């Protein structure tokens, strides 16, 4: 059997390995979608305006999709990110705008709000047997209510303005040529860190094991509760980061912003080949899935397709992506079986 | 044999959940290099007994001894640290993870220093493949292969090899052959023999008499939470054991099953019984 494997030519072997990688289907999707909208959108979509549009969107949703993807690989969902984004933005705006404290205090407070919501989520998920979907819907409404209540109580309106200091603005809220926002680079940075965490460091194994079989993971001595809580805190942090960067970019925060992140982040992750029930997925897949989603979302505006029908394309994309990911996953599994039989 | 100190021994262990008594005065012992088969129909208390041995439940009365010294486990982890490993039917393996990652889940080998510790994939794969092959499963050669692509028997064998590698002294196998095909069950039985040869004390839970007969040195039949019979290899025939387990019910069906397994044992591959 071993000789058979080594006899296979190197090229075919490399190609086979590439095809069996979990993100291969997603890569095809990204390329197809880009070519499709490039042919409709023309030079504008191919040039800087097009890239700036979809990269800006991809960066914001992508920063949240990364930890949401980790959670999904670990077999959990996080809906509360949609409420954490405005909660963090308003916290920053209240601290640094309404109370006029230094911007960094506000940034810190905003991020802390996200981490706290994540901590509460993690505690509830690990201490009860309620599905995380329900728990995080609960904390989402809780966070929304608190945000609205406190904002109206303190500021007297549902929007708060602030003027960030130059240093904070440069790091989090600036853009290159008024087109490529700093969040794009943060997104790529986070993607690199999370890639290391999931695929290179030994902790990544725990996350896959958690989603594969929670009970066995516990029996194998993996600290299930601590890992889960940590992941929720990470997703809370990421959502807060996006909220804070929004307020530093635009100089204002609104109570209503952020709902779109809930479904968008889940869609990016699922398009990226992460199994909704956990146990499989990759960071490259999540990044590609985010890009695909953002290209479609923004491409519709550039392509001249009636935006009213845009949602149909996004819905179809999701279903096609999941079907193709399933086929590629089965290919990876059945390949091994065939090799054994042959 | 019987003058050796047993690795694990239970003395008159009772287990009750509130007013419900599940186990009654269970006394068992298992020595190094010996396979103890626990036989019993569904609902006979096998699972509760396993969970008591592996630290999930604590005995209500009675005592447990390891190497002659009394022990009590407050949680499964404590039992594992003492070398009691439990392998459930499909437990301990994650279908969408590679052989190497599965083998080391929770005990990852690393290289590098400080926060830049890196999962040592090559080492993990090499050790995993080596260990599984040493247990006699030569068809696993690639540590990157996904476990979901292996057969049920190979997955079970991987889980057993893992337990052995991480220093198990007592191996509790919970119905390892129940969901397997005939050939795959033979695989697992071979691994059980290998574990026994290496000096592990094996507790093999099953309701398939032929599988028990193939590997067991010592048999205990559990009926309604009590040990109804306790005997050594060769002291009872298959028919007697089956009769004990079933309590005399539906012997015709049981006999049909046993016929099937006899054929397996001679090396012929029969049509699956179900």
Description:
Chain A has 342 residues and is an all-alpha fold. Chain A has helices at residues 2-7, 10-20, 24-46, 48-73, 81-98, 103-127, 132-155, 166-173, 182-200, 203-212, 214-219, 224-250, 260-271, 283-303, 310-341, and strands spanning 159-161, 175-176, 180-181, 252-254. Chain A has a single domain (43-324), classed as ABC transporter involved in vitamin B12 uptake, BtuC (Orthogonal Bundle). The longest helix of chain A is centred in the last third of the chain and has 32 residues, at 310-341. Chain A is globular, with a radius of gyration of 21 Å. Chain A starts with a helix and ends with a helix. Residues 1-7 and 337-342 of chain A have low confidence and may be disordered. Chain B is built from 9 helices and 12 strands. The longest helix of chain B has 16 residues, at 182-197. The chains are: A mainly alpha (342), B alpha/beta (274). The A-B interface holds A 1-2, 5, 200-202, 204-206, 208-209, 212-213, 215-217, 219-222, 275, 279-280, 329, 332-337, 340 and B 76-77, 80, 86, 88, 91-97, 101, 104-110, 117-119, 138-139, 141-142, 145-146, 148-150.
| SSE series of chain A | HHHHHHHEHEEHHHHEHHH
Helix content estimate of chain B? 25-40%
**Main β sheet profile of chain A:** 2 strands, antiparallel
Helix count from the secondary structure assignment of chain A: 15
Q: Strands of the biggest beta sheet of chain B: in what spatial order?
A: 6-9-10-3-11-12
Global shape of chain B? globular
Top CATH class of chain A: Mainly Alpha
Largest sheet of chain B: 6 strands, mixed
Q: Count the beta strands of chain B.
A: 12
The residue-averaged pLDDT of chain A reads 87
């Amino acid at each position: 059997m071993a000789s058979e494997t080594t006899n296979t030519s190197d090229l075919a072997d490399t190609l086979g390995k590439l095809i069996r990688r979990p993100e291969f289907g997603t890569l095809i999707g990204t390329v197809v979608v880009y070519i499709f909208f490039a042919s409709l959108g023309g030079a504008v979509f191919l040039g800087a305006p097009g890239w700036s549009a979809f990269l800006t969107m991809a960066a914001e949703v992508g920063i949240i999709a990364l930890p949401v993807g980790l959670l999904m690989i670990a077999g959990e969902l996080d809906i509360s990110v949609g409420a954490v984004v405005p909660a963090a933005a308003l916290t920053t705006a209240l601290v640094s705008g309404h109370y006029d404290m230094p911007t960094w205090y506000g940034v810190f407070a905003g991020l802390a709000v996200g981490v706290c919501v994540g901590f509460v989520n993690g505690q509830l998920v690990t201490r009860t047997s309620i599905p995380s979907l329900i728990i995080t819907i609960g904390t989402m409404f809780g966070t929304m209510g608190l945000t609205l209540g406190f904002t109206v109580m303190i500021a007297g309106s549902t929007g708060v303005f602030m003027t960030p200091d130059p240093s904070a603005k440069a790091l989090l809220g600036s853009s290159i040529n008024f087109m490529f926002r700093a969040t794009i680079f943060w997104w790529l940075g986070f993607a690199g860190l999370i890639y290391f965490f999931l695929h290179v460091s030994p902790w990544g194994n725990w996350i896959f094991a958690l989603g594969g079989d929670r009970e066995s993971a516990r029996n194998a001595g993996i600290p299930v509760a601590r890992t889960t809580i940590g992941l929720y805190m990470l997703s809370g942090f990421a959502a807060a980061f996006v909220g804070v960067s929004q307020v530093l970019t635009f100089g204002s925060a609104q109570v209503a912003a952020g709902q779109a992140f809930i479904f968008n982040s889940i869609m990016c992750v699922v398009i990226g080949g992460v199994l909704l029930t956990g146990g499989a997925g990759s960071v490259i897949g999540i990044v590609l899935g985010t890009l695909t989603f953002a290209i479609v979302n923004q491409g519709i505006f550039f392509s001249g397709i009636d935006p009213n029908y845009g949602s149909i394309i996004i819905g179809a994309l999701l279903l096609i992506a999941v079907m193709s990911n399933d086929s590629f996953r089965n290919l990876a599994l059945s390949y091994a079986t065939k090799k054994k039989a042959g | 044999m019987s003058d050796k100190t047993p690795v694990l021994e239970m003395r008159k262990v009772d287990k009750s959940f509130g007013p419900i008594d599940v186990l009654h005065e269970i006394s068992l012992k298992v020595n190094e290099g010996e396979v103890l088969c626990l036989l019993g129909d569904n609902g006979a208390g096998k699972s509760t007994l396993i969970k008591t041995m592996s630290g999930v439940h604590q005995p209500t009365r009675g005592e447990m001894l390891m190497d002659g010294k009394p022990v009590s486990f407050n949680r499964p982890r404590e039992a594992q640290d003492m070398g009691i490993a439990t392998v459930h039917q499909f437990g301990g393996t994650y279908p969408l993870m590679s052989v190497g990652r599965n083998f080391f889940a929770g005990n990852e080998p690393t290289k590098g220093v400080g926060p830049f510790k890196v999962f040592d994939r090559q080492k993990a794969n090499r050790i995993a493949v080596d260990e599984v092959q040493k247990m006699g499963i030569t068809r696993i050669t690639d540590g990157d292969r996904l476990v979901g692509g292996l057969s049920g028997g190979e997955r079970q064998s991987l889980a057993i090899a893992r337990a052995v590698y991480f220093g198990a002294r007592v191996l509790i196998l919970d119905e390892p052959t129940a969901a397997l095909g005939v050939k795959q069950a033979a695989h697992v039985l071979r691994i059980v023999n290998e574990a026994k040869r290496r000096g592990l004390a094996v507790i093999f839970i099953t309701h398939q008499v032929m599988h028990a007969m193939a590997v067991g040195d010592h048999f205990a039949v559990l009926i309604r939470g009590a040990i109804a019979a306790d005997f050594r290899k060769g002291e009872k025939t298959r028919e007697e054991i089956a009769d004990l387990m079933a309590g005399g019910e539906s012997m015709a069906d049981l006999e049909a099953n046993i016929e099937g397994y006899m054929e397996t044992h001679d090396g012929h591959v029969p049509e699956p019984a179900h």
